[in-house]
Design goal:
By secondary structure, this protein is mainly beta. The protein has two domains: about 140 residues, no CATH class; about 40 residues, no CATH class. The protein is about 10% helix and about 35% strand. The chain is built from two helices and eight strands. Strands 2, 3, 4, 5, 6 and 7 form a six-stranded mixed sheet that branches. A hairpin with a 3-residue loop joins β4 and β5. The protein is elongated, with a radius of gyration of 24 Å. About 5% of the residues have low confidence.
């Protein structure tokens, strides 16, 4: 997903705001676990003497399975971050990690800087990464989700079951005693 910034990047101190809608395909948001909806994007760019600084917002939603009860639910996603792009020097392009070829690791370029050609910005990859990183590792449909019964598999949020908990392995009883001591 590219934004044309040719006119903006010519003069330092200029600012522009872009608002658009992006499909999951445009942001390359295809995963097996999650189903993403469209995202509303707002990008405010400001030119500097060396490149562009942008404040980026992405708002959308994703349908995920709960990690406790396995029921699907919709999670709102909001991502806000700042990104900087620097112009590439002709004949000496920046590597993807921000260092020039053959340059030592003590470079003034940080990993947060992205190169651009002065004509357009590729924002799809950086937005995709930030959106995926904002998702919880263990998504829950609600904080008090009771999950599934480990014996019969009943969704304990919908009904209760009469299953007895499985007996604890006798080798783990000393750990259970330590657990109880820690709670007191």
């Amino acid at each position: 997903m590219k934004i044309n910034v040719e006119n903006l990047a010519r003069v330092a101190g200029r600012e522009a705001t872009y608002e658009m809608e992006a499909s999951p395909a445009a942001l390359n948001l295809a995963t097996e676990e999650a189903v993403f909806g469209k995202f509303r994007l707002k990008i405010h760019l400001r030119t500097t003497g060396k490149g562009l600084v942008g404040n980026l917002e992405a708002r959308g939603q994703v349908r995920l399975p709960c990690s406790r009860c396995l029921e699907e639910f919709v999670l709102p996603v909001e991502v806000f971050f700042q990104q900087e792009w620097r112009k590439e020097v002709s004949g000496d392009p920046l590597r993807r990690d921000g260092h020039r070829p053959g340059e030592a690791e003590q470079s003034p370029w940080s990993e947060d800087l992205l190169p651009f050609d002065g004509l357009s910005l590729e924002i799809g990859e950086v937005l995709r990464d930030r959106i995926l990183l904002s998702l919880p590792m263990k998504p829950l449909c609600s904080p008090d989700c009771r999950g599934l019964c480990p014996v019969c598999g009943t969704n304990l949020n919908e009904k209760t079951c009469n299953c007895r908990p499985e007996p604890v392995d006798p080798r783990l009883l000393p750990l259970q005693k330590l657990w109880k001591l820690g709670k007191d």
